Amino acid sequence: MKPSIPKGTRDFLPHEVRRRNYIFDVIRKHFHRYGYQPIETPVMENLSTLTGKYGEEGDRLLFKVLNNGDFLGKADSQQLAAQDSDAVLPQISKRGLRYDLTVPFARYVVMHQNDLAFPFKRYAIAPVWRADRPQKGRYNEFYQCDADVVGSDSLLYEAELTQLLDWVFADLGLRVVIRLNNRKILAGLAEIAGHQDRMMDITIAIDKLDKIGEAGVEKELRERGVDAAAIDTIKQFLGVTSLGKVAPLLEKSAIGREGIGELQAVFDTIGATTSRVEFDVTLARGLNYYTGCIYEVAVDTDSHPGIQMGSIAGGGRYADLTGIFGGRDLPGVGISFGAERIYDVLEELQLFPADASEDLEYLLLCLDEASLAHGFELVGQLRRAGRNADLYPAAAKLGKMMKYADQRNAPKVIIIGSEEVKSGKYSVKTMATGEQATQSLSGLIG
RNA sequence: GUGGUUGUAGCUCAGUUGGUUAGAGCGCUGGAUUGUGAUUCCAGAGGUCGCCGGUUCGAACCCGGUCUUCCACCCCA
Does residue A74 lie within any of the structural domains? Predict the structure, then answer.
């Protein structure tokens, strides 16, 4: 049988894992610096926790876990015979893999609300699963790195999370554009256009502006049943790039004015940043639990031309997520880094630091059995002294062992033969330069 | 979920209208070199042509199904 792994999943080689860990470590470091605390939740949740939280599309993309035991025997035989998947599903599956880290977090907050101090700031770096059709930069299993705060509606957190996004990408050496918008501005836009109830349709359409252009958005709006007068109103917003210019257009909408006010306060608080931070009225973001400010981060193509990648981080404020789980209605705001896409971008731009790929310092090669026994002693002494060291486990031909050292990317090789055992002076070869010198144990450790 | 696309050696790929024994480069193994890798030279190993079925005297090649890859939708990190 030929081994394989499920569609949309991947194995990782050691150097790939190291580079992924480099990204996780940078993100985690900044999460800690900003006072976010680590929590963990199961990879499986009850399906009832997950369904209905991500919209119709999200439900379709949930991975369901089959019940154990005689799950078909317990299902309704008529519905089974009728092949009615929707009706049979809840009878044969009660659990599913998490789709993101935010909804499980909301569930967690409600379950542990008496043990948490609010505002509660937490982070999680963990895999999530989506049964999407895979493409490049789009997998069925991928990691999210989330920081969220619940229990406060202070706009200081919007500003803080923007800073956090900026710090992480600055630290990674990646120039990005952080785009901000507010769902209330989008609600105001829909209201002004006379389609208060069609906000989702309108935002989905204008979100595509940079992809399909103004004519494409107009067509999309028509197809979604928005009338010509409303389209004219909406078009006024499309070219607008500053808050000051969009404000007059939303004069007559209370919620719109509120959104403008919130975003203005956030911009006033952020302060100096490395990244470009811009208002973008066409930014929508899919997850429909967002209610206030929304974020999206993309690679700055002015600084890094030729990079084609969707958003590499995103987030937003949600006013009423915990309410669904019957808890106190706690407001929250959070961001999420897309580690896989960041990896692909750093790889393409060769922005990984050199030391993110190898951590072995010494590799010991022994020429005969007596030397091998000595080598085992020596490698132990090096390890106890805190050096990363490894030993080739047999006395083989030196050429063969040198080749292994090359493949292991060992920076230094220690060669041990009868001479070295006798004198305690070892031959140390620096692989990059080919230079060779003799050193005693104290020299190796020092 | 819809439409398309891809699959040949470990990797990247050739392979003529269907015709004998399916090739190359890189990598791998051994040797030139029994104490020196990444360079050079020589030799060698390695393939149920994704899988299942069909058409045919004969299939890597044609047809159907299936899995996988990538792309456009949908949606999204």
Answer: no
Q: Which of A288, A319, A348 is the last residue of a domain?
A: A348
Q: Which domain holds residue A377?
A: 358-445
What pLDDT, in 10s, does the model give residues A233-249?
A: 998 888 888 899 999 99
Of residues A236, A266, A238, the one with CA closest to residue A251: A236
Would you say residue A163 has pLDDT above 80? yes
Residue A409 above 90 pLDDT?
A: no
Domains held by chain A: number:
2
One domain for residues A22 and A149: yes
Separation CA A320–CA A110 (nearest Å): 12
Residue A258's pLDDT is 95
Q: Of A293, A253, A261, which Cα lies nearest the Cα of A277?
A: A293
Confidence check: pLDDT of A178 > 90: yes
Quick one: pLDDT band at residue A115, thresholds 50, 70, 90?
Answer: very high
Specify whether A236 is located in the same domain as A303. yes
Residue whose Cα is closest to the C1' of B51: A2
Interface confidence (ipTM) of the complex: 0.85
Both A278 and A422 in one domain: the answer is: no
Mark residues 324-343 of chain A whose C-beta is closer than 7 A to nucleic acid strand B: 336, 338, 340-341
User: Could you tell me if residue A63 is inside a domain?
Assistant: no
pTM of the model: 0.90
Q: What is the dihedral of CA A188, A189, A193, A196, to 10 degrees?
A: -50
Decide which of A179 and A214 is more confident. A179
Q: Is residue A51 in some structural domain?
A: no
Domain boundary among A348, A374, A398: A348
Residue A96: the pLDDT is 95
Give the Å distances, CA to CA, from A312 to A31, A93, A261, A342, A362.
17, 33, 27, 6, 37
Nucleotides of B under 7 A from a protein CB: 1-3, 28-31, 33-38, 48, 50-51, 67-77
CA/C1' separation A281–B30 (Å): 67
Angle between helices A228-238 and A209-223 (to 10 degrees): 170
Amino acid at A158: E
Residue A402 lies in a domain: yes
Question: Strand ranges (DSSP E) for A41-175?
Answer: 44-46, 64-65, 95-97, 120-129, 141-150
Q: In this predicted structure, what is the pLDDT of residue A256?
A: 94
* Single-letter amino acid code for the residue at A411: P
* Cβ proximity of A441 and A424 under 8 Å: yes
Strand B at less than 7 A from CB of A139: yes
